[in-house]
Write a structure and sequence with these properties.
Number of strands: 22
Number of domains: 2
CATH topology of the largest domain: FAD/NAD(P)-binding domain
Helix content: 25-40%
Number of helices: 9
CATH superfamily of the largest domain: FAD/NAD(P)-binding domain
Shape: globular
Radius of gyration: 21 Å
Strand content: 25-35%
Distance between the termini: 49 Å
CATH class of the largest domain: Alpha Beta
Amino acid sequence: MPVVIVGGGPAGAATAIALAKHGIDAIVLETTLLTAFKPGETLPPNAGAIIGQLGLQELLDADEHHACTNNTVIWGKPEPETRYFFSETNGNGWHLDRPFFEQQLKNKAIEKGVSWLQGWKCEGWTPYNNHLEVTVFNRDGDQRIIKAGFLVDASGRAATLARKKGLKRNSLDKLTGYYAELKNAAGKLKGTTFIEAVCEGWWYASPMKNGDAIVTFMTDADLHQTSSAAVPQWLSDQLKQTCFLNQYMDQPDQFFNIHVKPASTSFLEKPSGDRWLAVGDAICTYDPITSHGLTAAMGGAIYAATAIKSYLDGNPEAMAAYSYVQQEAFNNYLSMLQNHYSIEQRWNNSQFWKRRH
């Protein structure tokens, strides 16, 4: 019987690919028919090893992605510090075209025999002695019942399956990303991920393959009561207050394709149970300053597939072990996150930084 995976993002696709390596069939339910907005993504050098474990290294060689050779950071002190990756064991990182990368993962999963149902949702499931009967439907009203051996929640922050089970999601902060693109702004950022801390949060910028740049202001949404119509000008005004990043931007008033997305740290109260588990953002979400999100989703998929294989082979303790490992990983992340924010002490009267200290 196949494993049904709800969610076709990186965590869901990678779990399906990892299951295929174990010889386990998978069916992915991808709710949306259209690709949602996904900002450019910086993949750190250590992610290469995880991509390699999945047998997907060639995906990063596509022309749509390009090398990230260094991070330039203004954090904890007023001067920028540039860290080059050429001395890293894993070499350079990558600036990803995120929508294209997700399409690559989908194509690779299908190539490995994964069934991909686009535009289908999970309505619910009924457990039996040795399987689940999963009811799915699409927007045309068609309905199917899939006999499955296991169920995976890879639905991202929504954690739709976990919520259907009545599980709660806990958020530890209100971090929000104000994402925008700037025309022809990639030149000075070539090969660089740029991070600058400011009084009310921090900025992130990276180049895109087409010559534009992704620029993001990370702050707590409740600190800035800004109407949707006023966001472009407000964002431009905030960028002009940076000491260094604005020097990289030739036309700071030319923002377009603006999106506001949650970026908070959050966790699911229970990551697995009888014949189900959550993976990727459905389990927990990470502060983008740690560059954990995509790497953790891909790495978590490998471990999820191993846990599922063990469970289906008759090891009932596999889910408890999976939950323990996920909790320990999240605890380690929290410690790292707290240490990172504690480095920045220049604005101790700022509400944003008070919350993190």
